[in-house]
Amino acid sequence: MRAFALRSGVRVTIHQPMRPKNKVHASFPQALDLAKASEQKPGVTYSKRRNDIEKFKGELALSWRIEKKADGTWFWQDDLSLKDFNLFRSWIEKSVPNLPQDAYFVEERNGFISLAWLEILPGSEKLVIDFLDNCANFKFE
């Protein structure tokens, strides 16, 4: 599944829960409950570098984040620099509902577009990679 992403120029980051600094001197179920309470999301983040990053040199780089609520709707968490990019913002809003159901956020920082998801549905990596490609190659003109 991830080999296709890597061949497509996507960087893959696997999320692993952090071990507690203090050892848990208890049973396995108690340790599992502690891990669940920390609310760390499993899964992976696929990231792709924006192709026209040179275009934004000297200007404020794009910085935004859109997240999925528990009810499945998407909301803007941070769109500091998208106010001047209404066409791009509109494209994002139309595109994120088509992402796999297990995607939970998309963001852009320093020219990298990242999408975090759980990789649950077989074959859904193509949707993620296509979204990242389209986002990285978006024509702002």
Low-confidence stretches: 35-39
Structural class: alpha+beta
Q: Approximately what portion of the residues adopt beta-strand conformation?
A: 15-25%
Beta strand count: 6
What is the average per-residue confidence, as pLDDT, rounded to a whole number? 77
How many separate domains?
A: 1
N-to-C series of helices and strands: HEHEEEHEEH
- How far apart are the first and last residues' alpha carbons, in Å? 34 Å
Estimate percent helicity. Answer: 25-40%
The largest sheet, given as strand count, sense and whether it forms a barrel, is: 6 strands, antiparallel
Roughly how many Å is the radius of gyration?
A: 17 Å
Number of helices: 4
Q: Tell me the strand order in the biggest sheet.
A: 1-2-6-5-3-4
Shape: globular
Question: What does it look like?
Answer:
- This protein has 141 residues and is of the alpha+beta class.
- The chain has one domain (2-136).
- 27% of the residues lie in helices and 25% in strands.
- The protein has helices at 2-7, 28-37, 86-95, 125-136; strands at 11-15, 43-49, 64-68, 74-78, 103-109, 112-117.
- The longest helix is centred in the last third of the chain and has 12 residues, at 125-136.
- It starts with a helix and ends in a 5-residue tail after the last helix.
- The chain has a six-stranded antiparallel sheet with strand order 1-2-6-5-3-4.
- It is globular and about 35 Å long.
